[in-house]
Structure formats: structure tokens, C-alpha cells
Amino acid sequence: MVNSSHEAMHRVFQYHPELFSRVSEVLGIGFAPPTSVTPLPTDLTETRPIERRVDTLLRIDSEDGESFVLAIEAQGKKDPAKPASWAYYVSYLHTKYQLPPMLLVVCQDRATAEWAARPIPIGPRKWPVLTLLPLVAGPHNMPVITNPAEARKDLALATLAAITHAKNPDIGAILKAVSTVLRDTPRNLADPVIELIAQGMGKHPAAEIWRKLVAVDLSFYKSPLSEELRDEGRVEGRVEGRAEDIVLVLEQRGIEVTDEARERITGCDDAEILRQWLIRAITASSTEEIFEIE
User: Fold this and answer.
1) How far is CA 144 from CA 157, 199, 212, 224, 260, in A?
2) What pTM was estimated for this model as a whole?
3) CA–CA distance, 63 with 21 (Å, rounded to integer)
């Protein structure tokens, strides 16, 4: 029950809002006197549903007897709105689970990782009431694992390291180390790694490197994703082969293939268009004829 002393301790500021400046001075902080004061609603209940989802949430009970709630966020770019969301997550989790909350942010971009790792003070400049300090994993601090023996020691860490280093110039060697280890890894452990790395490479050029490694090094795995990756590799291989056939037919017939024409042919990734060009290459009197629109 709310009693009179509880009421008095805060309502005095309703009557005398400038009092906060003087109290802060007594406490050694010294907020400047207000120039204006606007009363706000005190009811903090949400009046409409607001969806707030953390990427991954885990309760951790550690060997040393400590328990905490771990929120994990994947962050692809700087987002000025995120710190407020993270602060909300941490406060909410602390209230709901009555356990210490922990926030881990995972990034593939160094600039984003360094941005996310900054302490985030929440409150007035003179006395932040909260300071959010995420733990950040990214290309700036994750190990570059190119040795299969090292990857084998901790396959989970090697998987995350590969994902965070998707833009690293050595990504080919990093992925090769993982695929080498997966050759003799039980399927129930290897399949999730294959899928996670494929997803983690996204649209980066490294995605093509991983497809080829899965198609060659891990050809014995039959997971849906590994089959999909191999199918993509086979399609790409057929496209490249058909482009080479067009150039070969033209050259064998004594028709000059200019650098511009060669680039157009080998740069095309549409199998049907290449098929039409190949048919025309058999009878065309010049390279330009195969490109003509009927």
C-alpha cells in the first residue's frame, strides 16, 4: 500500500520541480536549474501491444554456480535506435527473470562492432542513471582460424569465427579449415555447421567459396541445404560450360571473338539465353549475329 511518506517523498517535486537542482547540488552533481518543466503521465503501462524480440535468449547456469540471462543480438550495421532497444531488453529481462542480464552483440563489420562496443550512458550527461556495456564479438576480436587442427579443437568457435570473418581476405583458408574438419565429423554435428556458415556468408563473395567446398569436400553429406548448395554449383557449372562452348564453336569456325563479345558471353548467367546463343553460333556469320533479337 502506498503510504503518506511515500507520497510526500516524490510529490514535493511536483510542487517544487526546481528542487531537483538544489538536491543534486547537495549530492555533488550540480544539475542546472530548470528553464521549463512539463508534467508527464506517470502510468508507464503499455496501452497497445508493442512487439519486442531479442534475436536469441538463453538462461545460463555456469559451473561456478552463477546464473544469468544471455541476450544475443546480430547487428549488421550501425543503428541509432538500437541502444534504446538494448537498454529496454536488459531492464525487462532483469525484471522478468530476476537474474543478471547479459548482452552479446555479434557483428561482421569492424566499424559496426566498434560502434556497438561503446559504453552507452543513459540519462543526463552529469549523472547517467544507467550505462549499457554490451559484450561484442566481431572481426576485430574473433580469431582467424586457418589451421584445421585448431578448428577441430572448438568447431563451434571456428564456425562463429568464420561467420564474423566473411569479409576477411583469408576467408578461403578459413572456410577450407572448417570443411576439412567436417569431413570426419558426425553428420548430426556437421549439418548445422554447413547451414550456419552458408547463411552467415550471405551475399558476400565468400558464399561462392563455401558452395564449392560443400560440393567437393563434403559431397557425401545429404542435408537439404548441402544438396541445394551442390545443385546451385552444378547449375553454375553448366552455365560456365555453355559459355565456353559458344566461344569454342565460334573460334573453331574461324569467327573472330572480340574481347567485348567474349566478356558478354562469359558474363551471362541465364542458361536459356546461352542455349539460344549456342544454337546461333553454329550458323552465324559473325559474333554479332548470335546476339540479335529475333
Assistant:
1) 10, 19, 21, 28, 40
2) 0.66
3) 47
